[in-house]
Please model this.
Amino acid sequence: MTTQHNINPIAGGVMSLNRVIDPMRTFTRAKGAYIFDDQDKRYIDYHAAFSPYLLGHGDENVDDAVRNAIDRGASLIGAGITPWESEVSELIVDCVPGLEQIQLTNTGTEAVMYALRLARAATGRDNVLIVQGGYNGGMDYVSFNLMDSRDVMQDHTPGTAYPLRPITAGIPEVVQKTVRVVEYNDLSAVEMVLSNSDVAAFILEPILQNVGIIKPEPGYLQGVRKLCDRYGTVLIFDEVKTGFRHGLGGYQNVAGVTPDLSIFGKAVANGYPMGVVGGKESVMRYCTDSDVSRRVMVAGTYNGHPLVVAAAIATLGKLRNREAEIYGKLDTLGQQMESGLEQIFHSRNYPTTVVRQGSAFVVYFMDHAPVNWRDIAIHNDAAYDVGYRKSLIENGVFHFPVTTKQGSISFAHSEADIDQTLVITERVLNRIENS
Ligand SMILES: Cc1ncc(COP(=O)(O)O)c(C=O)c1O
Model:
């Protein structure tokens, strides 16, 4: 007998409140480049569950590794170490030159939490600097200034910090007092904050990918590195989205800038829940400091869960063994998408700009590539973007229906998928313009 509930047992109606879509849809399965709803309608997927599926949904090698782990009885023991935890740790530090030591978590959010703790232990300071328009997970210290259109109204002077705008209720005031916010690509604002407040950590995505793809201006990341060194601040790159998507060594390797700490997640286990916090031994050593008052606790029942570890070993092993082939294909498909979209949008009588990094792409409805969130808030036609995304979904191409959310191509996509996406895109735009 089923119980009838008068109220939805899921508060908010979705698990993870950023999954709200309008109209609401129920999805039942996914394979390769496609997701399927409960009517078995197929969508070419560029959302990729907010981007972890670098190899595509249900990658055979990854799923086989998980099945094999189940078959060999790889249950969570929760004491000592397993050979697979050692193997995956070796693999991760081998792939990313900026990492000497790591700890595994279950999510990016937890990894951020531990990174901030480590930075505070290492510096003896409390304050944290974050970036306007960035997202670093759901914990209190970073839940500010996400995509707030009130910033359009505000007269902001470059070189200064932003007023704090919590993105959630429930953050104690004492926490708010420790957070500062600057625009991305504004080095003088970073200097202003670091020189005036004792900042333990500056955490940022090396490419601002929460609001599409905002690339660092030449010298920005190098400048941030220098300023953190000058003021004794721990530099944390949040590579939860950029990591492994833009190359095995993280975007830090592409940019040639090594942070003190890094966060990885999403693509590291191709959709299985893993977060990684890691970095220089000089900071990670606070996990085991002999002075108990400076020792940072990193603990979690499910950290290093054997099924997730198996998925990560298979994912990273495949990426490493077939690095040139996989990243080569991802870039070729990305180019095909970029040039196809540029051709389609070129002749329209409204401004658009396509921005791409490897297999990640976005169309901004504005006449230039943005340099920060405020630039987007002022110039991007968000309403048109959302309408465009909803029409694409109706026609079998799934982009998340929120403005500027990045598209993610996977190794499972084919040239034919991109061609079909471009045909649908052109049809959708013609229909919108003629309606
Ligand atoms: C850049 C970035 N950092 C951190 C997180 C948090 O990761 P998780 O959702 O696994 O907690 C996300 C999630 O979208 C993210 O995009």
Remarks:
- The pocket of pyridoxal-5'-phosphate is lined by residues 50, 107-109, 112, 135-137, 205, 210, 238, 240-241, 265, 275 (CB under 6 Å).
- The radius of gyration is 22 Å.
- The first strand starts at residue 27 and ends at 31.
- The chain has 14 helices and 14 strands.
